[in-house]
Amino acid sequence: xxxxxxxxxxxxxxxxxxxxxxxxxxxxxxxxxxxxxxxxxxxxxxxxxxxxxxxxxxxxxxxxxxxxxxxxxxxxxxxxxxxxxxxxxxxxxxxxxxxxxxxxxxxxxxxxxxxxxxxxxxxxxxxxxxxxxxx
Length: 135
Prior knowledge:
Layout: H1 2-17, E1 40-42, E2 48-50, H2 86-104
Antiparallel strand pairs: 1-2
């Protein structure tokens, strides 16, 4: 019976070692942190040396005079534009290109893929409806 008890005890202790190591399980000095990048190196006598090449440099554009704000309130009014229909989308994007090609004499009815026409929608991740197009 002692052998079986020792095996079970070993399995339980092994399972405990597989649980995630957090700051609650380590000594007081253990601080796991949150994944921040180190800005330097520690020397042998535990002194920290800052390395300027390791400090991230954020490039922020100059936004003086920029009218838009980075936050949109939930109280903002709804958009005034009605949703775009398939006919409106065709008239705005494809029809002018087809008319231009007809006038130039380069229109080919067998090559409609040039204008975005796809004969079948099967196997597509998104079906091409007007709501999928960026305005």
